[in-house]
Amino acid sequence: MDKNFLQSSLKDSLFTGLIALALFGPIVGLRTVAVNEALVVQPKWLVVALIVAFCAVGRFFINIYTFKKDQRRGEPSSFGKAISNFLDTKGSQIALGAVIFSIIFPFLPFADRYWMDIAIMMMTYIMLGWGLNIVIGLAGLLDLGYVAFYAVGAYSYALFAIHFGWSFWICLPLAGLFAGMFGILLGFPVLRLRGDYLAIVTLAFGEMIRILLLNWYELTKGPDGLTGIPRPSFFGLPFKRYPDEGVETFHTFFGLEYSPMQRIIFLYYLILILALITNFFTIKIRRLPVGRAWEALREDEIACKSLGVNPRNTKLTAFAVGAMFGGFAGSFFATRQAFISPESFTFIESAIIVAIVVLGGMGSQTGVVLSTIFLIGLIEVFRDFESYRMVAFGGAMVLIMVFRPKGILAKRKPTITMVKEK
Amino acid sequence: MEYFLQQLINGLTLGSVYGLIAIGYTMVYGIIGMINFAHGDIFMVGAFVALISFILFALTAIALPVILILVLLISMVFTACYGWTVEKLAYKPLRKSFRLAPLISALGMSIVLQNYVQAAQGARIKTLQPVIQGGFNFFEESEFVVTLSYLQIFIVLVTIVLMAIFTLLITRTALGRAQRACEQDRTMTALMGINVDRTISMTFIIGSSLASVAGMMFVMYYGVIDFYIGFLAGIKAFTAAVLGGIGSIPGAMLGGLLIGLIEVFWSGYISIEYKDIAAFTTLVIVLIFFPTGFLGKPDIEKV
Amino acid sequence: MSEKLLSVENLTMKFGGLIAIDDLSFSAKKDQITSIIGPNGAGKTTVFNCLTGFYKATSGSMFLNKDNKTLDLKKFSDFKVAQKAGVARTFQNIRLFPQMSVLENMMVAQHNKLMVASGFSLLGLINAPSFLKKEKEAKEISKYWLDIINLTNRADDNAGDLPYGDQRKLEIVRAMCIEPHLLCLDEPAAGLNAKESAELNKLLKFIQKDKKTGILLIEHDMSVVMGISDHVVVLNYGKKIFEGTAQETKTSPEVIEAYLGTEE
Ligand SMILES: Nc1ncnc2c1ncn2[C@@H]1O[C@H](COP(=O)(O)OP(=O)(O)O)[C@@H](O)[C@H]1O
Ligand SMILES: [Mg+2]
Question: Among C12, C15, C220, C240, which residue has the most ligand 1 atoms within 8 Å of its CB, making it the best to mutate?
Answer without folding.
Answer: C15
